[in-house]
Every structure is written in structure tokens, then in C-alpha cells.
Task: inverse folding
């Protein structure tokens, strides 16, 4: 137990690649929390996928012990948060558990859109913020310009920003000192009834569900009986620990402290992030405000390439859902793809991460259908229903109007590329809301339909700006628009997995791009194949894939029989990765590639 | 685990429908051609007597396995068998005649390079019993011969061809087309020239880029330009059929043309899925032994094969029974190359798989036809045989 004055709780806010994880590593190292021989890069990112992509997906925490220049010992709790917009909800709730943030900005790159989004969340949470300029040892570093930018764009005084290079270890002691002297100590009442915030929870195959908590008031001890105020469930605490970043058991946690507990909780779904934990008896009366649960905004179908792997897929999805309450799923049947699941994600990165984990950790080849957002269908009978899957679109005569989700997108871009960005946003049915300059960078705010963003907006953005633009968004609501369902017909057979909702004005262009792409993706057959895009019965785009003209082995004699037969067997095995639509076989890659629009 | 029946053919001596032949592989060449993926090697010094002894020993071995069968054909392939001493060929053929009863019209073919040196040995081969040569002329103009890495000129090839005509009963030659930058017009003219030379048989192969060849490496590196795309390859194939037909040398197989009755009997054994013993480095065989059809293979490296024969009395590195499904695939893969197609009763004897749905699908799109109890590709289906086979067996 440490008294409040000697605790500092903080998170790090940064754009991807600005050095957040490296700084965390240095703080862990220089406080001696982890012995040098046990250090590895991105210490706090435990998933393979996090290390591989250099991103943080799950919030993680570490308790650092630090002797400050004033000669006193402090406990510093760092909650490392994800940077990507898809995981913004993780950021927002983690921020409620701490009092301050380090704002890390790459001194050679400057402020990016993600930095902005996260720093606003920190300000919303009432944080004290210490600006930190990283990579100051790079030749391209311009600390003065970036300081100015922080002041102009964010409105934060950056005159006493800490200058560091996390990579080469420059300025790390200054960061530690700034945490102690510039961030506030937590508040709390040790004598009040227990009130702790459930910050996060995850499933550990050895320990079961592990719950991360931040104690607000009172004291929590091993063996205590606790009550979750939202679910009203009661548990006995089996273990109480702090993370360094490995679990180190501790007897009790007092106000301001952050730690984890296990209590024979079976599933992550039994815990509500943001819930208030109190004692079973004589608990606190008023719960913490809690968080809105994260809502999936992007949906797609996941089908096993090999139908026999359906049960394995179910198994893997259930296991992943155990640890990720933001990911939803239900069984789906597709005429084309057989049995699979319709899954909901927080965004495209979330979708990719889950898909990669299923393919890699569970070794299942997947077909991913077109990502779709959730439309609101207002029916003529006065009811409203959600549409997650274009294949479920009811008869149009029953629908009065359709609303689609829109986002407020913030894009920061060097002004050389501003024209390309405006064109891109305009092409995607965007409405400009704001355009301001900070130095040579422009900040554009657009109101955009989410459906125009889920396909490849981010890829396009990166390619038209050579990677210099940064982008962030939040959902802003629903709006009516002229939306239609576009079907794709291959050899006159509709391919349900390729149908999509599009804006009427964009349908022809989308349809054209789609049929042209499919023409390249579907191998030639022994007959010619019409590929059409249609709205209702009306064909809006058409291509014809000409028939195969030559595919025969020139020489085949006695010595070739075995080799050519094996080649034929191999080709037949390759056909298993194809899907049969009537007489036509479509390779599964076509489903994924066809949906990446680059027009 | 497959049941015993999946290895057994309903007709235990199915091979008889194709006959029995012997293939002998001579693995050496003067130089390796850049397109060739056959088992050929360039060696400085070859002890021909030692090789002769090994062939004789192998003939004894396979002769014992196939005792009493009537031998319909011998094919000396390579490599470049026209580098063999005529004495070695004589010793081999003498041994062959002493080992099997031979058909009255036995065909004995030797592959030859059309150079004057090789042609100098033709008389000796004929005296040893060779009745047919197959010459690798490949092109009738010097620029293309050079691009194909051939060591002879067009004139030299014609001279060697004339010698062959005067020495052997039957002479065939090969041309490679769909070469780099070859136009349909140029090929038509060259093919007409070739047809004017041809007597009874002509093999016309489209250039195929194989992995592990010099062309394959250049192709991968993007340095092999001017190869025809699928459309031009299809056009070249179509004009080839048309012009050869006019000249009376109909295609009896995808790449082989002959006057009626003068087809390569040896190659028909492969395509009609008969039995053949394969001896020499890298030679493959199909031998029905004890009611099971076996695939045999030998070591590809010449010296390894030679030492293996000398030390263990057999060059075979593999002799494995083929499942009925594999036999059926091979039967179709080989048989549908022939214009005559395959016998449906024989097809249905390969186990109880029902292909009728696949066959009907292919009939619907005009790729195959059935008539006179045979299944064969149509003119439209022949250039798409690989796709036809994938669907048929899929």
C-alpha cells in the first residue's frame, strides 16, 4: 500500500510509429522493473500480431518503482493504450483510470490525426498532459516547429516539452521526473467503502479471467468478497497482483492503485468494462458512471474455404470472442459459400486482426465477404430494422427509406497533397466541414458515409499522399440517402457474397470497377462468361470473360505420365480453393481482391 | 487405407489393349538445348562398352519379368542416341531379339540429331536393325536454330534428313513452333516447307518453357521476350492443324501428324496405355505384374544408374503399384491426346467411378463427343485438353 502522494498514474498518447512502445520499454528498463536480460522489444505488446504489425491492440499496464530526485520512492502506473481508431474505445476507458498523459510526438513528423483524437480523449478525461518530443536525435528533427504545431493545432503549451530519444535513451530520466513533478497524484479516501473501476479483462489459459482494476476509494484485499455493481455478481478474490509487467502478488491495493485480480470468473463476457467493483457487504452506494459498450460498426461474413472446417471455425470464433467482447458473431448461410459466420467489428483493422488470428492461430483458410456497415431500414409499416448483410435486403417495395451511418473524419496532410485529399473525400460523398492550416500542414474535417470508408479509404489516402496523411474518425450519426443493393451476376448466376449496398449515384462506377476486376480475377473457362452488375433486374455494367483458347501439354510420352498426372492432381487440389457458381469456378482470392476498389 | 480392390484393375491384362514396348534411354548430348527438360547430360568421355554391358543386363532383368510377351516396339531415346556407337546399338538389339518374341512388324526407332557426324553412323544403325529415325530438326532457318541453341544449320539438317531417307524405311522429324517473335505467316511458310519434305510422320511441338531449363531461368528473369500469348498460341495451333490436314498429314495426337498407318507405333503404346519397360537413366516404365500395373523409375544421374546396375543388378529406383484412380487418370490423360480417343468400356473398367455427369457437362459445351463406344475430344476441345481433364477428373 502506498500513500496517494507517492502514486502517479499515466498513459502515453501517440501516433503509430512515434515511439510509444519504445518509450514504454525505456521506462521499464531504466526503473529496473525488468532485468536487462529479460527485456525484449515492445515489452507490453504480448500478441504476436501486435509485435508483427508494430501496433498495440489491447491495453496493457505496468507498475514502475521510481526513486525521484526529491529522494522519495514513487509508484508509477503506466497504462499503454492502442493508437488505432478501431480501438479508440480501449483508449477512452483506459484514460478514465489515470490522471495524466504523456503526449509523445515524433519531432521529425509532427502532430498526426491519431495524436489529435487521442489527446482530445485525454483532455476529455481531465488529464494533465506532458508533451514529449521524441526522436530529437534524427537529422530531420525540428523540435521548435513541432512545439509550435502542438500549440497551434492542439492548443497545448509545449514550451517545456521534454526532449527525448527513446531509441537511444536520451532524456528518459527527465520523463520520469516530469511524471512525478508535473502529473497530479490520484485522489481517494482510504476509509470509504471500496470503489474500484473495472478497466479491462482478458482470458488467460492458466488463470481464467483476469480483471484489471483501478481503486478509487477504500482498500481491496486478497480473499475479499466483491460485488460487480452492474451485474450484481459476487466473487471471492483468489489472487490480487500488480503487473511488472508479469503478475506479482500483493496483499492489498489502496486508493489510486492499479492492479489485477482473479476470482474464478468463467468468461470475459461476465465482466463489464467500466463496471464498479465494491465489497459484498457495506459496499459503496453510488457506482462510477461506467462506459458505453463498444458497438461493432463493420460487418462481414467469414467462411471456411474448406467446408469441413466449419466446426473448427466456430470453435476459433468462440475462443476469440471470449477475450474480445467488442467482436460479435452469428451463424450465416450463403448459397455460394456455404456455412459461416456474420461477424461484427469495430473497424477494418479489427476485422483484419481477427481474420489473421483465425487463419494463423487456428490454421483455417477463410473467405472474407465484402465488409458492410449497419444500415437502418425504415419499413413502410413504420418499423425500423438493422441491415447487417446486403444479402438480407428485403423487397424494396416494403422499404420506405434507408439511413446509413456517417462519420466525422479528421485528416492531417501536408498541403502539397491537399487537393488529392479533397478530391478523394468528395468522390466518397464527403461534405467538407472544416479546413484549417498549421504551418505547412492542413487539417481537413469531413462528414463522410462510413460505407465509403470501410472499403479502402485508408489505403487510398495513404497512396495519394505517399503515406504523409493521417486519418482518424468517430461515428457521427445516421442520415438518409439514396442507397441501393447492387448484385453481381457471374454467368447469369447471382453471387450473394459479392452483393453490396451502394449509393445510387456511385452504383454504375462501382459496378463497372467490380466487373472489370472480376474479369481479371476469374480464370478463363472453356466457355465465355458474362459478368454483370445489376440493381434489381437492371444491368448497370457488363464485361465478358472470353473463353480459354489453349491449354494443352505439347509433349506427353511414357516418361511424362507420372509427372503430368501429379501436376493434374495438384491442379485438382487447387480447385478446392475455388467456389462453384453454376458452371463457373471462382477462386477465393477473387472475393477478397474484388472488394478492394482502387478507382 | 485403401481397400485391395482400389489397386486392382477389372481387366487384369488391360495393357494388352495398348501392347508392349521397350524404351532405352541414352542420357548424353553434345550440348544441352536451352528448352530441353529431358534427362540429358554432357560428358567428356563415355565408356560405351561399359554402358552396353549395363543395357544388356537390364534387358535380361526386365525380360525375365515379361517373359513370353510379344514385343511390338523398341525406342532408343535420349539425350542423343545418335551418339551411340553402332556396335552398341547392334549388341542391344541382338539381345532384345534373343529375349522376347518380336512382332513381325516390329518398329525400332532411334532419335537422331541432324548433323553430318551423326548421319555418318546411320548405315550402321540400319544394319543393326533400326527401322525408323526421328530427327530433331526443330526449325528450318538458321536464325531460329541458333536461338534454340541447336548446333546444326538448316542446310546440314536437310542433308542429314536426305541421308536418313535413303537409309531407313521410315523417317520422322520434329519442329518446334510458337518460338520467340514467330508470326503466324512465317510459321505457315515454314510448315509448308516442312510438309513438302516430310514422308510419313512429323512431330510439331509448341515451345514450352519448362522449369529448370536455361529458357525457364531466362523467362523467370523476364529476359525471354516475344513468346506468343494464349491467343496467338491458339492461332498457331489452329493453322498447324489446317495446313497439315491439307497436306494429308493428319494429327493423330496433339502434336503428332502421320499418314494413316504410319503413326509411331511406339508412342501409341504410351497413349493407348499399354505396358512398356523403361531402361537407362531416368527411364520410366509401366508394367503389369501379377494383375497390378506398376510404375517404374530409374536413377536419373548417369553414373549412379550405371553403378547401381553393376552393383545390384537393377537400375530401378522405384517399382510401385498404381491405384485404379491413378490408372484411370493416366488412361484418360494419355488416351484423350489421341484423335481416336478412348474406349468407353475400357474406361468404365477402371473402377466404379461415375464420370457421366462430368462427361455430359463437357459434351454440353462441345469439348468432347461420344460415338462408336468411344470418348474423344472435339476439334474445339483438343487445344484445351488440360482443362477438359481437370473437369473430367475433378
Result:
Amino acid at each position: 500500500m502506498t500513500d496517494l502522494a507517492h502514486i502517479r498514474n499515466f498513459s502515453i498518447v501517440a501516433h503509430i510509429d512515434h515511439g510509444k512502445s519504445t518509450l514504454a520499454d525505456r521506462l521499464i528498463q531504466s526503473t529496473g522493473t525488468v532485468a536487462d536480460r529479460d527485456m525484449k522489444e515492445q515489452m507490453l505488446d504480448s500478441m504476436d500480431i501486435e509485435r508483427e504489425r508494430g501496433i498495440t491492440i489491447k491495453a496493457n499496464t505496468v507498475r514502475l518503482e521510481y526513486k525521484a530526485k526529491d529522494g522519495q520512492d514513487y509508484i508509477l502506473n503506466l497504462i499503454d493504450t492502442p493508437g488505432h481508431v478501431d480501438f479508440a474505445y480501449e483508449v477512452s476507458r483506459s484514460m478514465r483510470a489515470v490522471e495524466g498523459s504523456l503526449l509523445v510526438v515524433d519531432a521529425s513528423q509532427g502532430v498526426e490525426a491519431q495524436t489529435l483524437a487521442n489527446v482530445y480523449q485525454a483532455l476529455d478525461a481531465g488529464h494533465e498532459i506532458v508533451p514529449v518530443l521524441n526522436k530529437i536525435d534524427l537529422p530531420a528533427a525540428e523540435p521548435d516547429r513541432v512545439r509550435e504545431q502542438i500549440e497551434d493545432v492542439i492548443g497545448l503549451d509545449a514550451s517545456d516539452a521534454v526532449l527525448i530519444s527513446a531509441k537511444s535513451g536520451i532524456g528518459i530520466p527527465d520523463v520520469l521526473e516530469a511524471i512525478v513533478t508535473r502529473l497530479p497524484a490520484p485522489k481517494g479516501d482510504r476509509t470509504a467503502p471500496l470503489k474500484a473501476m473495472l478497466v479491462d479483462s482478458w482470458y488467460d489459459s492458466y488463470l481464467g479471467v483476469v480483471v484489471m482494476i483501478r481503486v478509487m476509494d477504500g482498500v481491496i484485499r486478497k480473499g475479499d468478497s466483491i460485488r460487480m455493481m452492474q451485474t450484481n455478481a459476487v466473487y471471492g478474490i483468489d489472487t490480487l497482483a500488480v503487473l511488472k509487467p508479469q503478475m506479482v502478488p500483493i496483499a492489498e491495493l489502496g486508493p489510486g492503485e492499479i492492479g489485477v485480480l482473479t476470482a474464478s470468473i468463467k468468461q470475459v463476457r461476465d465482466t463489464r468494462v467500466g463496471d464498479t467493483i465494491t465489497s459484498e457487504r457495506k459496499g459503496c452506494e453510488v457506482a462510477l458512471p461506467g462506459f458505453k459498450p463498444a458497438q461493432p460498426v463493420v460487418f462481414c461474413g467469414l467462411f471456411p474455404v474448406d467446408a469441413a472446417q466449419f466446426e473448427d471455425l466456430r470453435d476459433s470464433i468462440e475462443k476469440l470472442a471470449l477475450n474480445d467482447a467488442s467482436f460479435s458473431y452469428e451463424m450465416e448461410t450463403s448459397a455460394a459459400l456455404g456455412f459461416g459466420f456474420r461477424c461484427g467489428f469495430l473497424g477494418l483493422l479489427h476485422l483484419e486482426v481477427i481474420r489473421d488470428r483465425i487463419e494463423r492461430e487456428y490454421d483455417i483458410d477463410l473467405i472474407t465477404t465484402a465488409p458492410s456497415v449497419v444500415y437502418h431500414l425504415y419499413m413502410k409499416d413504420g418499423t425500423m430494422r438493422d441491415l447487417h448483410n446486403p444479402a438480407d435486403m428485403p423487397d424494396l417495395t416494403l422499404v420506405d427509406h434507408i439511413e446509413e451511418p456517417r462519420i466525422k473524419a479528421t485528416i492531417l496532410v501536408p498541403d502539397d497533397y491537399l487537393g488529392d485529399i479533397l478530391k478523394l473525400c468528395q468522390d466518397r460523398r464527403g461534405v467538407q466541414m472544416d479546413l484549417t492550416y498549421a504551418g505547412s500542414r492542413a487539417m481537413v474535417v469531413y462528414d463522410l458515409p462510413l460505407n465509403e470508408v470501410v472499403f479502402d479509404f485508408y489505403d487510398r489516402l495513404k497512396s495519394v499522399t505517399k503515406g504523409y496523411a493521417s486519418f482518424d474518425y468517430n461515428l457521427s450519426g445516421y442520415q438518409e440517402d439514396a442507397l441501393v443493393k447492387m448484385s453481381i451476376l457471374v454467368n447469369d448466376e447471382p453471387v450473394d457474397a459479392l452483393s453490396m449496398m451502394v449509393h445510387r449515384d456511385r452504383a454504375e462506377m462501382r459496378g463497372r470497377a467490380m466487373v472489370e476486376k472480376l474479369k481479371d480475377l476469374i480464370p478463363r473457362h472453356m466457355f465465355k462468361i458474362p459478368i454483370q452488375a445489376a440493381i434489381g433486374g437492371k444491368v448497370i455494367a457488363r464485361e465478358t470473360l472470353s473463353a480459354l483458347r489453349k491449354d494443352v501439354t505439347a509433349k506427353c510420352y511414357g516418361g511424362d505420365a507420372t509427372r503430368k498426372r501429379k501436376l493434374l492432381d495438384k491442379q485438382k487440389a487447387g480447385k478446392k480453393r475455388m467456389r462453384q457458381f453454376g458452371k463457373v469456378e471462382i477462386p477465393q482470392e477473387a472475393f477478397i481482391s474484388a472488394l478492394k476498389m482502387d478507382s | 487405407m485403401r481397400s485391395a480392390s482400389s489397386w486392382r484393375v477389372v481387366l487384369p491384362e488391360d495393357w494388352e489393349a495398348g501392347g508392349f514396348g521397350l524404351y532405352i534411354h541414352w542420357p548424353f548430348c553434345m550440348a544441352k538445348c536451352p528448352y530441353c527438360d529431358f534427362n540429358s547430360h554432357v560428358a567428356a568421355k563415355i565408356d560405351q562398352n561399359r554402358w552396353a554391358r549395363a543395357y544388356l543386363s537390364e534387358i535380361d532383368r526386365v525380360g525375365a519379368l515379361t517373359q513370353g510377351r510379344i514385343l511390338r516396339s523398341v525406342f532408343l531415346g535420349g539425350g542423343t542416341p545418335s551418339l551411340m556407337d553402332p556396335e552398341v546399338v547392334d549388341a542391344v538389339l541382338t539381345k532384345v531379339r534373343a529375349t522376347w518374341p518380336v512382332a513381325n512388324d516390329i518398329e525400332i526407332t532411334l532419335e537422331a540429331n541432324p548433323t553430318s557426324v551423326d548421319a555418318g553412323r546411320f548405315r550402321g544403325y540400319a544394319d543393326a536393325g533400326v527401322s525408323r529415325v526421328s530427327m530433331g530438326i526443330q526449325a528450318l532457318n538458321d536464325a531460329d536454330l541458333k536461338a534454340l541453341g541447336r548446333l546444326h544449320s538448316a542446310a546440314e539438317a536437310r542433308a542429314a534428313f536426305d541421308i536418313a531417307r535413303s537409309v531407313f524405311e521410315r523417317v520422322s522429324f520434329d519442329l518446334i513452333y510458337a518460338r520467340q517473335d514467330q508470326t503466324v505467316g512465317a510459321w505457315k511458310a515454314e510448315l509448308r516447307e516442312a510438309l513438302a519434305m516430310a514422308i510419313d510422320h512429323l512431330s510439331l511441338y509448341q515451345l514450352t518453357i519448362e522449369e529448370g531449363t536455361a529458357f525457364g531461368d531466362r523467362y523467370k528473369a523476364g529476359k525471354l521476350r516475344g513468346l506468343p500469348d494464349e491467343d496467338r498460341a491458339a492461332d498457331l495451333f489452329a493453322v498447324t492443324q489446317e495446313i497439315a490436314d491439307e497436306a494429308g498429314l493428319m494429327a493423330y495426337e496433339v502434336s503428332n501428324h502421320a499418314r494413316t498407318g504410319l503413326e509411331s507405333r511406339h508412342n501409341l503404346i504410351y497413349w493407348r496405355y499399354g505396358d512398356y519397360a523403361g531402361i537407362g537413366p531416368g527411364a520410366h516404365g509401366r508394367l503389369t505384374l501379377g494383375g497390378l500395373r506398376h510404375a517404374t523409375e530409374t536413377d536419373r544421374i548417369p553414373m549412379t544408374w550405371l553403378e547401381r546396375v553393376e552393383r545390384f543388378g537393377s537400375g530401378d529406383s522405384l517399382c510401385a503399384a498404381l491405384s485404379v484412380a491413378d490408372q484411370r487418370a493416366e488412361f484418360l490423360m494419355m488416351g484423350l491426346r489421341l484423335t481416336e480417343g478412348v474406349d468407353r468400356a475400357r474406361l468404365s473398367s477402371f473402377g466404379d467411378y461415375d464420370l457421366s455427369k462430368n462427361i455430359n457437362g463437357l459434351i454440353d459445351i462441345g469439348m468432347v463427343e461420344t460415338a462408336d463406344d468411344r470418348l474423344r475430344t472435339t476439334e474445339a476441345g483438343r487445344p484445351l485438353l488440360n482443362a477438359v481433364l481437370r473437369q473430367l477428373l475433378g
